[in-house]
Amino acid sequence: MKRIAVFASGTGSNARCLLDYFRNSGEAEVALIVCNNPKAGVLQLAAETQTETLLLERERFSAGDAYVPVLQEKQIDFIVLAGFLWLVPEKLVRAYPDKIINIHPALLPKFGGKGMYGMHVHRAVIAAGETESGITIHYVNEHYDEGRYIAQVTCPVYATDTPEALAKRIQALEHAYLPETVLNVIGK
Ligand code: GRF
Fold first, then answer.
1. Ligand 1 pocket, 2 CB below 6 A?
2. Which of 74, 88, 106, 157 has its CA 20 to 30 A from that of 61?
3. What is the whole-number distance in angstroms between the Cα of residue 6 and the centre of ligand 1?
4. Is 4 within 8 Å of 30 (Cβ atoms)?
5. pTM, entire model
6. Active-site residue flag, 104
7. Is the N-terminal amide bond of 109 cis, ω within 30° of 0?
8. Interior CA angle at 173 toward 171 and 179, to 5°?
9. What does the DSSP 8-state code read for residue 65?
10. What is the pLDDT of residues 13-48, one digit of tens each?
11. Strands of 100-104's sheet, edge to edge?
């Protein structure tokens, strides 16, 4: 049984999908929710589902041991970033080679990098006049949104779209594709 840690600091709708999907899978489980914001909605989800949590402190994460010993002690095999905004330090990338993936709500390499998250992404996509957007699931290295791609799934952007409407379409794609993609790569 693989033990997944989901790093999330937002509402955690993707974390919820992963929890639901793996609950009785027999192959993997979401064993830990890792968060850097004590007020994040995802912590409520953790409480609701009785999932263990780890609250990160910036200095230790970015310039200290990056919580590698803690994650190892909790026997975490695989990490999914779903709404986690801090740069993953090299120490953590090295400790989990090809075992950390991220989901990004656009078709990288466009609309990625520092500051490109949430509504900023969808606003930029619409402002650029794109007719297509989508999601990118990729391995994580020590640069924002730059690791090898695992999957990209597209959806249309309509001329009448508001950022909110596009966000909804993208979120549906994320929920539909993230859990299965994790299952496909987790054993590799
Ligand atoms: C998702 O759009 C994901 O692509 C991004 O952060 C968002 C997290 O949303 N990296 P949620 O907290 O899972 O609802």
1. no
2. 106
3. 11
4. yes
5. 0.95
6. yes
7. yes
8. 100
9. -
10. 999 999 999 998 889 999 999 999 999 999 999 999
11. 52-55, 28-35, 2-7, 78-81, 100-104, 132-139, 149-156
